[in-house]
C-alpha cells in the first residue's frame, strides 16, 4: 500500500514475530504486539528486557533482524516504504529531553516543523504556542531550556513531538530522569493526552499511571511478552511467576 493511503481500519501499530539481535545477543525474540488507535499500552519489565529496543524498532531507529512492523497498515520493514513519511506520524519522547540549549522554547518547537513539515515561520510558531498551551507552558515560550525545571523541559519535549501532529506517541521512561517532585506534572500531561484519545505506547516504572491511565499492560522479560492484559488484573493478579517476582520487587 502507498504511504499516502492511511488504512483507518488497521491497528496503529502491529509487530509480527519481531526479532532483533545485536550480534549473538537476541534482544527481541519474536514480539507480536498490536496497538489499536486510541489505546494506551504500558510496558513494564526489568532492565535489559528489550523495552527500549521494541520502542525504537517501532519507528525503525533500530532495524529488525526478523519479522515485520506495520504502522497504520503500512509495512515499514518493506524497503519500498518511505520510512520518513511514516515516522512523522509517530512522536517519540525519551528519558532525556534533548532540547537545543542555545534556542528558546519557541525556537526548539519551531525548528523541526520548519525542516520536516516545511512550515513557514509564522505557522510553525503558531502551532508551537498552541502545543505549549496544551502542556501548560504557554508563558515559557521565550525562556531558554536551562531556565526550566526538568519536568518543564520534559513537557516542552512532549509539546515538540505534538507539533508534528503525530497519530501516536511513544514514551520511553519519560519520568525516570526527573526528581520525584517533578514526575507528577509530566504524568498529568500524558494523562490529558490519553483523555484526548491519543494512541500511546509507554515504557514506564510508574505503576499508578499504568493502572489508572493504561488500557492494557504488558510485562516483558528476556525479549518476550510474558504477560499482558487489563492493568488492574496484571498488577493485582499476575499469572506468571516472572511477573510476580518483578512486581514484588517494584510495588
Ligand atoms: P530495556 O529498555 O528493557 O532496559 P534495552 O532494549 O535497552 O532494554 O536493551 C536490551 C538488551 O539489548 C540489553 O542487553 C542491551 O545491552 C542490548 N542493547 C541495546 N541496544 C544495543 C546496541 N545498540 N548495541 C548492542 N546491544 C544493545
Ligand atoms: Mg530502556
Give structural notes.
With 251 residues, the protein is α/β, with parallel strands linked by helices. The protein has helices spanning 51-58, 83-87, 105-116, 121-134, 150-162, 180-195, 207-213, 231-236, 241-250, and strands spanning 13-22, 25-35, 40-44, 66-71, 74-75, 90-93, 168-172, 199-203, 216-221, 224-229. 36% of the residues lie in helices and 24% in strands. Strands 6-7-8-3-9-10 form a six-stranded mixed beta sheet, sandwiched between helices. A hairpin with a 2-residue loop joins strand 9 (216-221) and strand 10 (224-229). The model has no long low-confidence stretch (mean pLDDT 95). Adenosine-5'-diphosphate (ADP) is lined by residues 22, 25, 27, 45, 47-53.
Helix content: 25-40%
Using the CA coordinates, give the radius of gyration.
18 Å
Outline, from the CA principal axes?
A: globular
Q: Report the portion of residues in β strands.
A: 15-25%
Regions with pLDDT < 50 over 5+ consecutive residues?
none
Question: Average pLDDT across residues?
Answer: 95
> Could you tell me how far the N terminus lies from the C terminus, measured between alpha carbons in angstroms?
44 Å
Specify the structural class: alpha/beta
Total number of helices: 9
Bound molecules: adenosine-5'-diphosphate, magnesium ion
Strand neighbour order, sheet with most strands: 6-7-8-3-9-10
Summarize the helix and strand pattern as letters: EEEHEEHEHHHEHEHEEHH
Largest sheet: 6 strands, mixed
EC number: 7.4.2.1
Domain ABC transporter: 13-247
InterPro entries: AAA+_ATPase, ABC_ATPase_HisP-typ, ABC_transporter-like_ATP-bd, ABC_transporter-like_CS, MetN_ABC_transporter-like, P-loop_NTPase
Family: Belongs to the ABC transporter superfamily.
